[in-house]
Recover the amino acids of this structure.
């Protein structure tokens, strides 16, 4: 990480600035998928233990965000969509972000171990390490496959939630992990296709920069095709069912159609319609993940009344 020049060193940070360090939008997705992992597990959890577990996962996600912002402050100031973050804008000192990230990491891991079990705490510790060190410090700046491998960090929350409830790992939690892991590359590559100049300005080796847009478009399609059997396979497990499968079929057809549309485009078409297709596919990818996890939650609710599952 290179030194950065603060825009206004006299600015006094407020609570909103420190909260922004935790990447609340990312945290909301982490909390949602972790909560689903906990609630669909076959073992009931005391509400207080469940609350503490999800709180620790949320704090751990926030800690990862703070550590990522500390490390990436130099490139964040070069990209339009990140230049207003607390550190590059001068609202928070880098050392403060590092201290907050480390303190929250330790708090979340220790409390999760004491309140639930060692496996859940170990998975949380590994997730923070993977995102802050493996992804942020190495993968992001060294390989165009950064999103592919780094996607594991965002895929662990439902597995951690499941471990909070069961104390173990199963095919269901592995497939929830795999669903997010396989979804992440086409989701972010669709984004990269219409924010390409930002990554290039910061020197981040996104696939669009190292291999070009045509290759990126093909990769969006390839990974979306690979995602389909994972999503459908999850529906055949003990936490799936007819409702989930119906949702999965619709959402995968929708996402796959978007990926095919992207693969057939060229730069001229993108410039002509201002990346309308890519933007729409990116939005569909957001609906895609939420729909699958909401469907799992609905199946769990149905099973409470003897109606869900196969």
């Amino acid at each position: 990480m290179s030194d950065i020049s603060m825009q206004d060193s006299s600015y006094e940070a407020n609570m909103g600035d420190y909260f922004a360090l935790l990447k609340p939008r990312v945290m909301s997705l982490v909390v949602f998928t972790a909560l689903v992992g906990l609630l669909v597990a076959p073992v009931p959890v005391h509400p207080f233990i469940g609350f503490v577990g999800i709180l620790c996962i949320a704090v751990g996600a926030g800690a990862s965000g703070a550590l990522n912002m500390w490390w990436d402050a130099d490139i964040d100031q070069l990209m339009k969509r990140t230049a207003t973050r607390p550190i590059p804008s001068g609202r928070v000192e880098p050392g403060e972000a590092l201290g907050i990230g480390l303190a929250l990491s330790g708090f979340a891991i220790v409390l999760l171990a004491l309140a639930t079990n060692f496996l859940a705490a170990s998975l949380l510790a590994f997730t923070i390490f993977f995102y802050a060190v493996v992804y942020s410090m190495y993968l992001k700046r060294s390989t165009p496959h950064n999103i592919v491998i780094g996607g594991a960090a965002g895929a662990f929350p439902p597995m951690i939630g499941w471990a909070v409830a069961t104390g173990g790992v199963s095919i269901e939690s592995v497939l929830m992990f795999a669903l997010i892991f396989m979804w992440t590359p086409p989701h972010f590559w669709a984004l990269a296709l219409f924010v390409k100049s930002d990554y290039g300005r910061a020197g981040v080796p996104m696939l669009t920069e190292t291999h070009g847009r045509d290759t990126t478009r093909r990769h969006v399609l390839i990974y979306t095709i690979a995602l389909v059997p994972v999503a459908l396979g999850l529906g055949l497990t003990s936490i799936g069912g007819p409702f989930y499968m119906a949702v999965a079929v619709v959402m995968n057809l929708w996402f796959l159609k978007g990926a095919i549309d992207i693969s057939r485009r060229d730069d001229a078409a993108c410039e002509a319609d201002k990346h309308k297709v890519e933007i729409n596919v990116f939005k569909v990818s957001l609906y895609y993940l939420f729909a699958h996890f909401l469907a799992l939650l609905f199946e769990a609710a149905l099973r409470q009344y003897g109606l869900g599952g196969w």
Notes: Residues 170-310 form one domain. The radius of gyration is 20 Å. Residues 2-6 have pLDDT under 50 and may be disordered.
